[in-house]
Amino acid sequence: EPDKPEAGLLMRALRDFNLPKIVEDDMVVFMGLLKDLFSEVFDAMPRMRNFEFEELIKTVALESKLIPSDYFVQNVVDTQDLLDIRHCIFIIGTSGNNKSTTWTTLCKVWTRGNERGKTIYRDINPKAITPNELYGFINIATREWKDGLLSFTMRELANMPDTNPKWIILDGDLDANWIENMNSVMDDNRLLTLASNERIRLLTHMRMIFEIRDLAYASPATVTRAGILFISEHQQWKNYVQSWVDAYSSEEPFQVKAEPKAARKAKLEQLFAKYCEPVLLELSMNYKHMIPNLLDFGLVQALCNFLQDLLVVDNVGVSGPEHFEIYFVLACVWAFGGAMSITSGVDYRKKFSQYWKDTWKTVKFPHRGEVFDCYVDKAKHEFAAWTEIVPEIAYNSASTPMGQVTVPTSETVAISFWLDNLIKNKYGAMLIGGAGCGKTAIINGKLRSMPEEYSAELVNINYYTNANMFQKILEAPLEKKAGKNYGPPGNKKLIYFVDDLNMAALDNYNTASNISLMRQHIDYGHIYDLNKLSQKVLLNTQYLSAMNPTAGSFIVNPRLQRRFNTFAINFPSGECLNSIYATFLVGHLSKFNDEVKELGKRIVQAGLQLHKRVSATFRKTASNFHYEFNIRQMAGVFQGLLNAQPAQFADPLKMCQLWLHESERIYGDRLVSKEDLKKYKELAAEQAKKFFKEMSPTSLMAEPLIFCHFAGGMGEKCYDRCLTFNDLSTLLNGALDEYNE
Description:
Elements: H1 6-18, H2 27-37, H3 51-63, H4 70-85, E1 88-92, H5 99-111, E2 120-124, H6 131-135, E3 136-138, E4 145-147, H7 149-158, E5 166-171, H8 176-179, H9 183-186, E6 191-193, E7 199-201, E8 206-212, H10 220-223, E9 227-230, H11 237-250, H12 258-286, H13 296-310, H14 313-316, H15 324-337, E10 342-343, E11 346-347, H16 348-359, E12 374-377, E13 382-385, H17 410-424, E14 428-432, H18 439-448, E15 454-460, H19 467-475, E16 479-480, E17 485-487, E18 493-499, H20 513-524, E19 526-529, E20 534-538, E21 541-547, H21 558-561, E22 564-568, H22 574-589, H23 594-617, H24 631-641, H25 652-666, H26 674-691, H27 697-700, E23 706-708, E24 720-722, H28 725-740
Parallel strand pairs: 1-8, 1-9, 2-5, 5-8, 14-21, 14-22, 15-18, 17-20, 18-21
Antiparallel strand pairs: 3-4, 6-7, 10-11, 12-13, 16-17, 19-20, 23-24
Helix pairs in contact: 3-5, 4-5, 11-12, 11-13, 12-15, 13-15, 13-17, 19-20, 22-23, 23-25, 23-26, 24-25, 25-26
């Protein structure tokens, strides 16, 4: 362009090369600086655009069911420009900002119409394996060289005879361990030097694309070697919503005629526009979720996931969109407020419920209770309380251990409804809440009641879990199918339930390798066999997870978090606990005489009150950090009560003494000083007098209160009372002598 002024060419080069890496908020400052420096030519030099190429991007995007917004097209063009001048580029941005979509679209565009030739890529998550497994290492014992995943992939791509574009996608968090070894690949040498002295060249038609969330652990040496594309938030969720609405509309069943179909689509677009933006703004200003890393994109994605199974013909019929709004509001409330609980002393769930009732009045919730207490009755198309559909269960202690029964309450019924909704479409769900609030019990209860076609695998994460151990657990229930495919036996669908997701130890760069492996599996559908260095595609698998946000690493990588629809589980209310433990105890006492039967409900109430008083009196401190009294302790008391058998416990007094004994074993044995124990006994006596007025306190609190499984002698198992310490001593000494003989 010899006729253009040099200052203009310089300004355009500076602007167009730097724009991709500028964050949205800094754009005004950057353009202001350029305008000050090149005021004469600033407006005379627009971007150089290849309209034909942009049209091709739009065509490919539409075929992939994406929305070709100007910003998205610009990102794809910027990626191509960077790949033309750099052989390594960083694509950076928060989760849901279409980083992956940008490069996959460019890959399809290059392949299409022979733009650049058939483009292939290999994806690797460098954080899901160790640096040795990434680059290769020499086995010290045998002096043998073991290839790494990256060295193997680079060599394989370099040895292919054609010169079509080949990309290596390194999708994972940056850390100094693996990225610094890349320096010689990223600079002009383009050489990967291995410990075996082999050198693999990154050929001219090969590129490396790093997809990362930030550069927190990258050194200046690394950052300056690569081209950078920063993709800003730009309310990308609006594009996602539009894609989802288009896909939903195109997949409507044939019974829905053209006119209602158009009306239904228009109604959906109007509902998203009406509710999403104002509610997201309100959340960002005045609300906190139980975990801080829930992004707007993730919340809107959860809403779409819920709607996928709510807006079905069964619920909304095949005519117009009259019933769409009530289901939309139900999904909205749970998507935006489902992860709220009491945070920093404020009950955000209650506050959100009040905000919703005060602000959105087109669809009215019942006046009583919170917005989370209702579901949509599909026969009447109006809200009804969850409590109306809580099933009654009869508990038989002889055939089923207490831990294998989930007693339905209004909260478990609600969570169960949403789990059904999500599992059907293979979406992930995550339950978050404090220790002992019933997260694991709810999911296990759900998995036990799943249809025959589903199987489940429990994965317990602990401090020492790493990607290697996690991968072994993932592969254990799978069998080999055709080629590189693996899946559960037969036509089953496998649900991995990952408990304590955030428990694994973090490395120096705040990442856990098992989380990276899980993300690779969810995002790309495969993991790697590190012996054969080949892909293993895992079919028919999906995830449920649970975690305590006040333990472990508190939160997980936001890029994994977005893949899960999050529900906060609160501690069950007194009413729920009463119904749960009454189910167990009354069910167990059904075989006892009438006098003992009648005690069941009173023992449950006394147990709950005592637990409440103990939790309030004995607080956790730095020296007594084990003074933690949650629902697990309460369950322990009732577990002990279920050991009683009708033959030994015909007397109501003895049954009450058993309750006092079990409570003392659970609460009293945790206390560290005689003063604390004395205080505890006073609390127990107070509850005993209150609930069992007809019994004499002296006989009720008779010392020693000891019940054991060997009260009738060592040979027979009989849970009964030992009346004195002498009896206990005789029994134990007899057993010891017998053992010594």
